[in-house]
């Protein structure tokens, strides 16, 4: 899998590609996203006959069926970063069997960082085992994500992030949820929060963060879902517990979570 994911990720380096609008404000897809997803679906279908796909883009073979052996594909996580030359994007592929996530692969071709995890076998970054130190918010960098097309979440994410910022050492918004989650797995971030993501954004990273010793859930503590999108709160167990209190306080003030 490593060679395949890296080959797909390196396609992000192939220069600019045509940009198209998707539904909602500032929601884009490029010809490169399509090309990478097509490549992965074609390669994975021939290696694993009968497998299903839950990919972000509208390409042939992408059925959003999570049954049996399924691959969750985000061909470019950080498409806006890619379009504007931020050099901070990745390919993300999560693997599930009968509804249970069993492996995750995330590759950033700009830094050549390859994160991988298999359930029960630990997580690695460039071959090095990841073992998360349990730290509180005040001991690290907090990261959050938001998207212009999720307009209903704008006030909440910025109000909550301000509280997280005031409790932690600093605040980041990297523009790639998968990479921010992987940074939570490596300890570069102590926490990651986003109020609405889709399964292909977090499928791979969810295995990586759990296998590194971190936790991941929705903001109210419910398990994340893989048939539909949800909020995501992940990181070191102590920081996540502190963040849950901050988030619950915020919504208590707004009458309900
Ligand atoms: C987006 C990125 C971003 C996050 C958005 C996602 P895309 O994915 O992960 O960091 O805040 O919610 O939609 O569109 O670049 O694949
Ligand atoms: Ca994404
Ligand atoms: Ca994407």
Question: How would you portray this structure in words?
Answer:
By secondary structure, this protein is of the alpha+beta class. It has seven helices and 14 strands. The chain has helices spanning 2-10, 31-47, 79-83, 154-167, 177-186, 199-211, 237-253; strands at 19-21, 28-30, 52-55, 69-77, 90-97, 100-108, 113-118, 123-125, 128-129, 141-145, 170-172, 191-197, 215-217, 230-235. Strands 3-4-5-6-7-8-9 form a seven-stranded mixed beta sheet, with helices on both faces. The longest helix has 17 residues, at 31-47. The model has no long low-confidence stretch (mean pLDDT 95).
Considering the chains and any ligands shown, give keywords for the structure.
single chain; 257 residues; alpha+beta; Fructose-1,6-Bisphosphatase, Chain A, domain 1; D-Maltodextrin-Binding Protein, domain 2; 2 domains; 14 strands; globular; binds D-MYO-inositol-1-phosphate; binds calcium ion
Provide mean pLDDT, rounded. 95
The gross shape turns out to be: globular
Looking at the overall shape, the CATH architecture of the largest domain is: 2-Layer Sandwich
Reading side by side through the largest sheet, how are the strands ordered? 3-4-5-6-7-8-9
Straight-line distance between termini:
40 Å
Biggest β-sheet description: 7 strands, mixed
Secondary-structure blueprint:
Elements: H1 2-10, E1 19-21, E2 28-30, H2 31-47, E3 52-55, E4 69-77, H3 79-83, E5 90-97, E6 100-108, E7 113-118, E8 123-125, E9 128-129, E10 141-145, H4 154-167, E11 170-172, H5 177-186, E12 191-197, H6 199-211, E13 215-217, E14 230-235, H7 237-253
Parallel strand pairs: 3-4, 10-11, 10-12
Antiparallel strand pairs: 1-2, 4-5, 5-6, 6-7, 7-8, 8-9, 12-14, 13-14
Helix pairs in contact: 1-2, 4-7, 5-6
The protein binds D-MYO-inositol-1-phosphate (IPD) and calcium ion (CA) (2 copies).
């Amino acid at each position: 899998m490593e060679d395949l994911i890296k080959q797909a990720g390196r396609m992000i380096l192939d220069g600019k590609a045509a940009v198209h609008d998707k539904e909602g404000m500032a929601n884009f897809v490029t010809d490169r996203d399509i090309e990478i997803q097509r490549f992965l679906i074609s390669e994975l279908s021939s290696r694993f006959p009968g497998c299903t796909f839950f990919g972000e883009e509208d390409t042939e073979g992408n059925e959003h069926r999570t049954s049996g052996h399924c691959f969750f594909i985000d061909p470019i996580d950080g498409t806006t970063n890619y379009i504007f030359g931020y050099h901070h994007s990745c390919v993300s592929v999560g693997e599930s069997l009968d509804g249970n996530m069993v492996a995750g692969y995330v590759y950033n071709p700009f830094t050549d960082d390859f994160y991988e995890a298999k359930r029960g076998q630990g997580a690695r970054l460039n071959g090095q085992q990841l073992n998360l130190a349990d730290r509180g918010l005040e001991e690290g960098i907090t990261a959050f994500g938001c998207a212009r097309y999720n307009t209903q979440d704008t006030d909440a994410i910025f109000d909550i992030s301000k509280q997280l910022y005031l409790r932690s050492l600093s605040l980041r918004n990297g523009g790639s949820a998968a990479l921010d989650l992987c940074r939570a797995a490596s300890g570069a971030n102590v926490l990651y929060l986003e109020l609405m993501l889709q399964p292909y954004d977090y499928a791979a990273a969810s295995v990586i963060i759990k296998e590194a010793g971190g936790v991941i859930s929705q903001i109210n503590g419910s398990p994340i879902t893989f048939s539909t999108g949800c909020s995501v709160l992940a990181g070191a167990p102590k920081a996540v517990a502190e963040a849950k209190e901050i988030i619950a306080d915020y919504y208590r003030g707004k009458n309900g979570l």
